[in-house]
UniProtKB/TrEMBL annotation:
InterPro entries: CAP_dom, CAP_sf. The keyword Signal applies. This is Serine protease. The keyword Protease applies. GO terms for molecular function: peptidase activity. Gene3D superfamilies: CAP. Residues 1-23 form the signal peptide. One of its GO terms (biological process) is proteolysis. Keywords: Hydrolase, Protease, Signal. Residues 29-51, 179-206 are annotated as: Disordered. Residues 61-175 form the SCP domain.
Length: 206
C-alpha cells in the first residue's frame, strides 16, 4: 500500500500577539500590502490532452470550490503566481525527498506574491500514483488542512503537483488573501469534517 502524508503550515504571524493555525499577514517586503491586488485568473483547462500534473491540479482546485460552495462559502479564484510557488515546492520536495514546508514568510515577502497579504499552505505526498480525489479527501479529513480549504478569508488558490520519476506524487496548495479582499478575516477555527462533498478517490492521476 502506498504511504500518504499530508501537512499544513501552522503559525507564521507578523502581527504582535497573533496565534492560530494559518499563515497570516506580512507587513514588510515586496509582497506586503500594495494598492493593486492580483486579478482573478482562469484555472488551467486540465482536459485529457493536458499533462497529468495539470489535470490533477485542476481537479483539486475544482474540488476545493465544490466543498466551499456546499458550505455557503465564497469560491477561491485561481492564481498563477500561487500555482508556480506551489509546483516549485512540490518539485523541491520530490528532489530532496524531504516532506517539509517552505519558509512561507519569505515567500510572502518576495516579488512573486506582490499584492497578497496572507498565505496558507497544505502539502501532500504519496509513494505511488494516487488520483486527485485521494489528495483532496486526505486534506479534507485532516483538521488543519480542512481549515485552509474552508477558510472564509482566502480569495485565491494555486495548486502545484509533481509526478516524480520514482512514481511518488507530491502536491502543494497555496491559499492567498489579496490586499483589500472583500472577505471575512482569515479564521483560526476548524470546520467540522462532514459533509465532505467530494470524498471519492477518483480523478486524474500521474
Amino acid at each position: 500500500m502506498f504511504r500518504l502524508r499530508a501537512a499544513l503550515v501552522a503559525v507564521l504571524a507578523v502581527l504582535l500577539g497573533s496565534t492560530g493555525c494559518v499563515v497570516t499577514s506580512s507587513s514588510s517586503g515586496s509582497g506586503a500590502l500594495v494598492d493593486s491586488a492580483p486579478a482573478p485568473q482562469s484555472a488551467p483547462a486540465g482536459d485529457g490532452d493536458a499533462p497529468a500534473e495539470e489535470q490533477i491540479a485542476r481537479a483539486v482546485f475544482d474540488r476545493v470550490n465544490a466543498e466551499r460552495e456546499a458550505r455557503g462559502l465564497e469560491p477561491v479564484a485561481w492564481n498563477d503566481a500561487l500555482a508556480t510557488v506551489a509546483r516549485d515546492w512540490s518539485a523541491e520536495m520530490a528532489d530532496t525527498g524531504e516532506f517539509v514546508h517552505q519558509d512561507i514568510r519569505e515567500v510572502l515577502q518576495g516579488d512573486e506574491l506582490a499584492g497578497f497579504e496572507s498565505v496558507g499552505e497544505n502539502i501532500f505526498s504519496a509513494t505511488g500514483p494516487v488520483p486527485a480525489g485521494t489528495i483532496h479527501a486526505g486534506w479534507m479529513r485532516s483538521d488543519g488542512h480542512r481549515a485552509n480549504v474552508l477558510n472564509p478569508g482566502w480569495d485565491r488558490l494555486g495548486v502545484g503537483v509533481f509526478c516524480a520519476a520514482d512514481g511518488s506524487v507530491w502536491a502543494t496548495q497555496e491559499f492567498g488573501r489579496t490586499a483589500g479582499a472583500d472577505r471575512p478575516a482569515v479564521a483560526s477555527s476548524t470546520p467540522p469534517v462532514e459533509p465532505i462533498t467530494r470524498p471519492a478517490d477518483d480523478g486524474p492521476t500521474c
